[in-house]
Amino acid sequence: MGKKEVTAITPTRVEDYPEWYQQVVKASDLAESSPVRGCMVIKPWGYSIWENIMRVLNNLFKETGVKNAYFPLFIPLSFLEKEAEHVEGFAKECAVVTHHRLKKGPDGSLVPAGALNEPLVVRPTSETIIGDSFSKWVSSYRDLPILINQWANVVRWEMRPRIFLRTSEFLWQEGHSAHATQEEAVERTNMMLDAYEKLAKDYLAIPVIKGRKTPAERFPGAVDTLCMEAMMQDRKALQAGTSHFLGQNFARASNIKFQSAQEKEEYAWTVSWGASTRLIGGLIMTHGDDDGLILPPKIASAHVVLLPIIKKPSDRSGVMEYTESLVKELRDTSYDDRRLEVEIDDRDIGGARGWDWIKKGIPLRVEIGPRDISNNSVFVGRRDRGHRDKASIKRDRFVSEITTILDEIQENLFERALSLREAHTVNIEGKNEFYEFFTPENPEKPEIHGGFALSHWCGSDACELKIKEDLKVTIRCIPLDGESEKGGCICCNQPSMHRVVFAKSY
Amino acid sequence: MGKKEVTAITPTRVEDYPEWYQQVVKASDLAESSPVRGCMVIKPWGYSIWENIMRVLNNLFKETGVKNAYFPLFIPLSFLEKEAEHVEGFAKECAVVTHHRLKKGPDGSLVPAGALNEPLVVRPTSETIIGDSFSKWVSSYRDLPILINQWANVVRWEMRPRIFLRTSEFLWQEGHSAHATQEEAVERTNMMLDAYEKLAKDYLAIPVIKGRKTPAERFPGAVDTLCMEAMMQDRKALQAGTSHFLGQNFARASNIKFQSAQEKEEYAWTVSWGASTRLIGGLIMTHGDDDGLILPPKIASAHVVLLPIIKKPSDRSGVMEYTESLVKELRDTSYDDRRLEVEIDDRDIGGARGWDWIKKGIPLRVEIGPRDISNNSVFVGRRDRGHRDKASIKRDRFVSEITTILDEIQENLFERALSLREAHTVNIEGKNEFYEFFTPENPEKPEIHGGFALSHWCGSDACELKIKEDLKVTIRCIPLDGESEKGGCICCNQPSMHRVVFAKSY
After folding, report:
1. Residue A231, pLDDT above cutoff 90
2. Where are the alpha helices (DSSP H) in B92-151?
3. How many Cα atoms occupy the beta-carbon half-sphere of A193 within 13 Å?
């Protein structure tokens, strides 16, 4: 028997997946919990991933005419109440501001003072406050469409927070648009889902299934919620972006009316779409391994780290000179739509140095020692390969091929994630088989099991609820590209015309 | 007598400066008030200025090793209380979260529920919550310096809000650093002020005086506050960025300790620096004229608007083709560190179209009609010149010279602002003259008068306070480049060794 491979992360994914996740977040220096319950501190290595997501989405949005703006953090309670389903959906998780100053209490400590006439809710989402602006901006069909996005923090109080995946405060973008016709609004809803798909596939290297939520899983107040779902390595689903067709519900609530070309007064059709720092959680769980984080090059905080090897003081100047000149050369190279981001780490901490960068998931590690220099080469490790799998490459070739190597890594990560999903996505026809699929074989190790079950569903809330209660399995989406097919509901065997994606989820 | 020039903004600056400001904000479509008291909606044209400021500061900060991160919106009350002067400074303007959900009240309407054990304050600034993270990140001198910046919204409750200048919620960046030595922290404090100076002078085209705040005007909890002050067109001062040397005050409060190279346990030295959306208010008041906003090209939302002139339907295709090809050519041009941003406006609304762009302050307006096309030329208006002052330029020449023209505009705006400041900055020795300088000649038109008085000050709080009470004039700063000079305090005539900047301020 071979001896057990030492891994940088303890426990491994198989040993304890949820704890592995927490340990990767820590070891990769992405983020940490804060003393404020449910709120996280996003550290520089994590925040730069978010900055890259912002850059990519800003470009994708801008191409479709969307402009950035900024709306108030606070929403008057009365605004939130304008749309009944909406407030119902968020009431249980609202941070409420009730006072606007502090004063000395009887025991000398500070207490809230200056009670507000109307409580303010810290935005959980901004349909109602942005709707108020839209109602002022629109009077004629000529003012439409309005296409707005904001980058913002939002708060949804979490009783069981989990870093990146479920935090009381998170960062996101929320797009909001108003249109003269239903058709145009529906088209926009799809268009923004496509932008998310592009982000997920081409940048995050996460394969996704685009689909439609069931009525029970819709955004509160929406007519239709489109989403994309990705499979994590524990085979659970993660929702990675949603786009909501809101019909005229919010236009009625916020009084967004316009004079049509036919001089009739009509309510606008609105759309909203959002993606959040949760995507970083998805990135970790899609690509990470038992040595830590693995970052797809197109979204990585940095592409390459140079590790000068200085074994004796007399080596230093030669090694550092070679390193600095290589840095300069690499930084002059473009990759995707930005410059190559290069780190240098000359800390004298032995093998821990290489491991630090493995755990942080940087795509390429380049060791540079006196022997490499005399060969005019570099010693390269790729994060998509084992940590011992390193190769000497001529310096010139490395510089000229680095973007090709990065593309290869990007592609490999996507293919690996796709293979995992395909391996654990099955058509299931029988109820017993379905229940078995979602029941852990070993009840003491329930973390990794199941996957995506493509099964028929009759469309009833009752069947959806029954499966949720029995198995904690939900309908993740009704795939947009699913073909019409006759079958029997996995729960009640009543006729069904399409398969849906069932899975456990985050 | 010439007849009065018609202006796009009513009232003019001379007629009513504060109201002129509000009207420019409105006419230029930068921002608007929101239904949430003291909070503003930053519209796309305004937000893109902020995005440009973010880009410039991110680059300047990054050059000095600063990395972006993100910390919680909420600060536990007990954290804020850790530094006595600090909490004292912010207690009167804190938004306080006391509940984490909503429930149906007796009359069926929603009321706050789920009272928090400890109230949370919406961050007015983040020294205390970031200090908590620093205390965990630092253990040895090898961990220092830590150089962090965050882009965030902050809330300081305002009883008399004014858009961009004084809002309850505003956007800003706050930099925070921790250092092993006092010298290094002081150096960082100066370095970040220099970054702000570069932003102000080279991008916003706002001349500034760098200086030190008096003890009375310091950031609550700071040992030393550096600032830069700009003169607005009503001759009042606007503080446009501050950098605080915090000594070991916040390190003690947050327990940021490290083991020194000599193996002694020491408190770190911390620094914080910030600039906010207030800068946009400064931009408006520095450059705007009676026709609206004027944007310096290096920070402008867009550089040039193309205005196709289509007088009869048969002109359309030729004019639009010429316009589109020009757009393409211009967008391939770089200006400063971004691509030229080009707008096209083909709305059929007559003269209002050109005026819209004048009011929005775009640096260049380019009219393109059939006659221009037959001459292979364009008809160009510059926003730094009168609205009638337009000139025909050969198309090729325009394309090749546009960045030079933009540089000229940038330079002109800076020089104009500098001239205004120099014209209204005076050395004043006598108390009577000082009081006269700050007293409006016409009490019915008090808006524009005074300026910067460079006068001696003995250093006493009493004199500073007396002048503030008598005249609403404060010491804006003790200039960093001020030379030592003997004189008598403008208030008490006691000996003084330096002049300070006295002014009314925003």
Report:
1. yes
2. 127-137
3. 26
Across the interface, whether the CB atoms of A101 and B119 are under 8 A apart is answered no
Let me know: does B253 contact B128? Beta carbons within 8 Å.
yes
Residue with tokens 């000649």: B441
B92/A102 Cβ within 8 A: yes
Q: Is residue A76 within 8 Å of residue B35, measured between CB atoms?
A: yes
Band the pLDDT of B351: cuts 50, 70, 90. Answer: confident
Specify the 3-state DSSP secondary structure of A399.
helix
Two tokens at A330? 């690499």
CATH architecture for segment(s) A302-407: 3-Layer(aba) Sandwich (3.40)
Residues B116, B98: contact at Cβ < 8 Å? yes
**Domain A17-287 is in which class?**
alpha beta
Q: Residue B240 is which amino acid?
A: A
Say if residues B267 and B248 touch (Cβ distance below 8 Å): yes
**What pLDDT is recorded for position B4?**
64
How far does A369 lie from chain B, in Å, by closest CA?
A: 24
For B372, counting Cβ atoms within 10 Å of its Cβ (0-12 exposed, 13-18 middle, 19+ buried), the class is buried
* Statement: the pTM of the whole predicted model exceeds 0.90: yes
Looking at the domain B425-503, which fold is it? Translation Initiation Factor IF3 (3.30.110)
DSSP class of residue A165 equals T
Q: Around B107, how many Cα atoms within 13 Å sit in the side-chain half-sphere?
A: 2
Strands across the sheet containing B224-231: B67-68, B146-155, B169-179, B269-276, B237-245, B224-231, B209-212, B474-479, B499-503, B452-456, B425-427
Nearest in space to A276 (alpha carbons), one of A79, A506, A26, A24: A506
Distance from CA of A325 to the nearest CA of B (A): 18
CB contact under 8 A, A101 and B93: yes
pLDDT at position A3, please?
58
Q: Return the ∠ at Cα B389 (arms to B383 and B394), rounded to 5°.
A: 90
Q: Which two tokens stand for residue B303?
A: 């550089």
Nearest-by-Cβ selection for B36 from A47, A74, A80:
A74
Residue of A nearest to B75 (CA): A36
Q: Among A73, A128, A130, A137, which would you mutate to test the B interface (most chain B Cβ atoms within 10 Å of its Cβ)?
A: A73
Identity at A18, one-letter amino acid code = P
Residue range B25-77, pLDDT digits in tens: 999 999 999 999 899 999 999 999 999 999 999 999 999 999 999 999 999 99
The answer to whether B44 contacts A69, with C-beta atoms less than 8 Å apart, is yes
Question: How many Cα atoms within 13 Å fall on the side-chain side of residue A79?
Answer: 24
The structure tokens 């470009």 sit at A59
Contact present, A233 and A9 (Cβ < 8 Å): no
Fold of B297-421: Rossmann fold (3.40.50)
Beta bridge pairs of residue B474: B503
Q: Using an 8 Å Cβ cutoff, are A328 and A360 in contact?
A: no
Q: Which residues pair with B239 in a beta bridge?
A: B229
- Whether residues A87 and B110 touch (CB distance < 8 A) is answered with yes
Query: Contact A153/B152, CB-based, under 8 Å?
Result: yes
| Alpha helix stretches (DSSP H) within A267-394 | 278-287, 316-331, 352-360, 370-374
Which residue of chain A is at minimal alpha-carbon distance from B41?
Answer: A71
Cβ distance A269 to A251 under 8 Å?
A: yes
Fill in the amino acid letter for A496.
S
Instruction: Place B1 in a pLDDT band, splitting at 50, 70 and 90.
Output: very low
Q: Give the model confidence (pLDDT) of B135-182 as tens digits.
A: 999 999 999 999 999 999 999 999 999 999 999 999 999 999 999 999
Q: Which residue has the tokens 């620096």?
A: B273
Q: What residues contact B272, with CB distance under 8 A and at least 6 apart?
A: B125, B127, B174, B175, B176, B177, B219, B243, B244, B246
Q: How far apart are CA A98 and CA A80, in angstroms?
A: 15
Domain spans of chain A, in order of start: 17-287, 302-407, 425-503
